[in-house]
Amino acid sequence: MCRVCLRLRVRRGWPIGMTPPSDYVDLLPSHADASLPPPALLQSQHEWLAPSRARLLRKARIAHRRRVLDLGCGYGLTLAELSRRCSGETFALDRSTTALGAVMSAHRVCGDVARLPFRDGQLDLVFMQNVLMWVDGLRPALNETHRVLDANGALVLLEPDFGGMMEWPEEGVSRDIWMSTLRRAGGDPTVGRKLPGLLRETGFRVEVSLLDSLRPPHERRWDLLSGLPLTQEEKRQVRQLKQQEMSVVHLPYFLIVAGKP
Q1: Which residues form the domain of 119?
Q2: How many other β-carbons are positioned within 10 Å of the β-carbon of residue 108?
Q3: Of the candidates 12, 69, 71, 207, which lies 20 to 30 Å from 112 by C-alpha distance?
Q4: So what's the pLDDT on residue 166?
Q5: In a domain, 26, yes or no
Q6: How far apart are CA 254 and CA 233, in angstroms?
Q7: Residue 222 located in a structural domain
Q8: Rounded to two decimals, what is the model's pTM?
Q9: pLDDT of 38-83, one tens digit each?
């Protein structure tokens, strides 16, 4: 296992990265990284995005990829999936040495998203999920990703856009609380809509889709929200919102596969 110790400039007070299969949970460090949500919440997120993630990876021809990077990997919880589906080696990069201690099936790299410790064109697939919403400086991160991908490489992204959140009835709308608390935590709640244009400016060819199905509201969303820096007034509002039965709660996700022209 390789270890290159730099610093990953990612702020994370809410989901970033993937969740392990159930047999991975026991491998997590006893002193888990406080910047990551509990494994049970990550598991819910992992399952919720699994169909979209699978479609994107197929579109990116993961079965033919030989050098795959899980960028902002957290505990390396998606690596079993990436390793199983690719035809070569996988790398797991994160800022947290504690989280990387749980990585079992990849080369571990503690690094900086704005200064990736890879040669030009060394990788042929980079995967990120809920990562760029926590990155300070999207352009340097995208430039670095473009640099380390080879001529036929692919970038796979799943990033939310809370600004387009749809909820009904109006009495239970929580969008404004999500937006304010994510910003307070250092995140960008509307990162999804910014990425297509920025990726094209960086030199990528971009294919974009959105979540295409409406699912019942997931109760674990309140646990995720409670993990953000809420004001006392927002905590009071959340307690009230929990009592409201919602028929529609839809968080748009930008599902992106980008490659070099």
Answers
A1: 22-162+190-216+251-259
A2: 23
A3: 207
A4: 96
A5: yes
A6: 31
A7: no
A8: 0.86
A9: 767 777 787 888 999 999 999 999 999 999 999 988 877 788 899 9
Q: Cis before residue 229, ω within 30 degrees of 0?
A: no
Q: Give the count of domains, the chain.
A: 1
Q: Is 185 inside any structural domain?
A: no
Q: What is the mean pLDDT of each run of 10 residues along the chain (261 residues)?
A: 33 30 34 62 80 96 96 84 93 81 78 91 96 94 97 97 96 96 95 98 98 86 91 96 94 96 86
> Could you tell me which of 92, 106, 104 has the C-alpha nearest to residue 29?
104
| CATH at residue 116 | 3.40.50.150
- Classify residue 86: in a domain, yes or no: yes
- In SS3 terms, the chain reads as CCCCECCCCECCCCCCCCCCCHHHHHHCCCCCCCCCCCHHHHHHHHHHHHHHHHHHHHHCCHHHCCEEEEECCCCCCCHHHHHHHCCCEEEEEECCHHHHCCCCCCEEEECECCECCCCCCCEEEEEEECCHHHECCHHHHHHHHHHHEEEEEEEEEEEECHHHCEEECHHHCCHHHHHHHHHHCCCCCCHHHHHHHHHHHHCCEEEEEECCCCCCCCCHHHHHHHCCCCCHHHHHHHHHHCCCCCCEEECCEEEEEEECC
The two tokens of residue 116 are 């990736």
pLDDT of residue 35: 64
